[in-house]
């Protein structure tokens, strides 16, 4: 096992231990009637575009996510495996990318592990609306030299406001990203300056439940550019959800970028199993 593999394995074991510890703590505070739930999600995502550059870039990823939900909290851990193709220096962030016009290269490997904690603050039945606060830490487990990650830790905070009107649910999300800076590094043999600024993000989602099994929705998202001189990221996504039974949910989406910082097109599918 290489030193990089050992670091990924160590980080994964440490994160699993944290999630397990949080779950045990939540169980210790569980009240009568509280319904705790463990779930596993497998998702496939693909996106491609030119990002305002003469060169074409594409990315595919498989992500495994384990989550533990209680009435008041949710804990999750996600590990992606990423396939990328594009010019050296293309660094995908949540708000754009850096582009250096050199040879097209291909890279693949494990991405950055993400650990998240969500606190459900308000419930619509009691307060007239839903409110949740989510904190996420992205650990630098992806290869910086391959261009699969920046090699530094990022943190994210999100506020979700939700309101249901019959079969229609509206959700507004506001986020802030604390992005780490790796400075001058070599990516695929080319010197890059991986310096970023913290960014705001926002999205508005509308979901319509058609029946007990199907739902459709649309999400409009935007985020500040993380690099000076780059445009803000803007996109729109439509999705379809299918609830096969009480334990299995399937979801598919299509995405269209609305700026040079977003992919031209994207598509994804996921399957979630609840235990």
What does this structure look like?
This protein has 275 residues and is mainly beta. It has one domain (3-274): monomeric porin ompg (Porin). The protein is built from two helices and 15 strands. The chain has a twelve-stranded antiparallel β-barrel with strand order 1-2-3-5-6-7-8-11-12-13-14-15. A hairpin with a 7-residue loop joins strand 1 and strand 2.
Work out the oligomeric state of the chains in this entry: single chain
Low-confidence segments, ≥5 residues, pLDDT <50? 90-101
Calculate the terminal CA-CA distance, rounded to whole Å.
Answer: 33 Å
Q: Averaged pLDDT, please?
A: 86
Q: Helical content, roughly?
A: 10-25%
> Strand count, sense and closure of the main sheet?
12 strands, antiparallel, barrel
What fold name goes in the CATH topology slot?
Porin
Tell me the CATH superfamily: monomeric porin ompg
Highest-level CATH class: Mainly Beta
Give the ordered list of helices and strands. Answer: HEEEEEHEEEEEEEEEE
Per DSSP, the total helix count is 2
Question: Can you tell me the CATH architecture?
Answer: Beta Barrel
Q: What is the total domain count?
A: 1
Q: Tell me how many strands there are.
A: 15
């Amino acid at each position: 096992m290489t030193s990089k593999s050992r670091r990924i394995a160590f980080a994964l074991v440490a994160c699993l231990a944290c999630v397990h510890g949080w779950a045990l703590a939540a169980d210790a505070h569980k009240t009568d009637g509280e319904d705790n739930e463990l779930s596993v999600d497998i998702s496939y995502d693909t996106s491609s575009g030119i990002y305002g550059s003469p060169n074409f870039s594409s990315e595919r990823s498989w992500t495994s996510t384990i989550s533990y939900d209680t009435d008041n909290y949710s804990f999750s851990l996600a590990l992606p495996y990423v396939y990328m193709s594009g010019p050296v220096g293309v660094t995908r962030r949540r708000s754009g990318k850096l582009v250096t016009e050199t040879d097209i290269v291909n890279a693949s490997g494990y991405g950055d592990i993400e650990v998240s904690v969500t606190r459900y603050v308000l419930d619509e039945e009691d307060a007239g609306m839903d409110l949740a606060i989510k904190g996420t830490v992205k650990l630098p487990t992806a290869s910086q030299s391959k261009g699969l990650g920046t090699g530094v830790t990022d943190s994210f905070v999100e506020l979700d406001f939700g309101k249901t009107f019959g079969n229609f649910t509206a959700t507004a999300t506001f986020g802030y990203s604390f992005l780490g800076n790796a400075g001058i590094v070599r990516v695929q043999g080319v010197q890059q300056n991986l310096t970023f600024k913290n960014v705001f993000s926002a999205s508005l989602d509308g979901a319509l439940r058609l029946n007990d099994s199907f739902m459709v929705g649309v999400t409009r998202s935007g985020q500040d550019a993380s690099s000076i001189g780059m445009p803000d990221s803007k996109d729109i996504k439509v999705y379809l959800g299918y609830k096969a039974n009480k334990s299995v949910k399937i979801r598919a989406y299509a995405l269209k970028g609305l700026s040079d910082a977003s992919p031209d097109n994207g598509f994804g599918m996921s399957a979630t199993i609840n235990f």
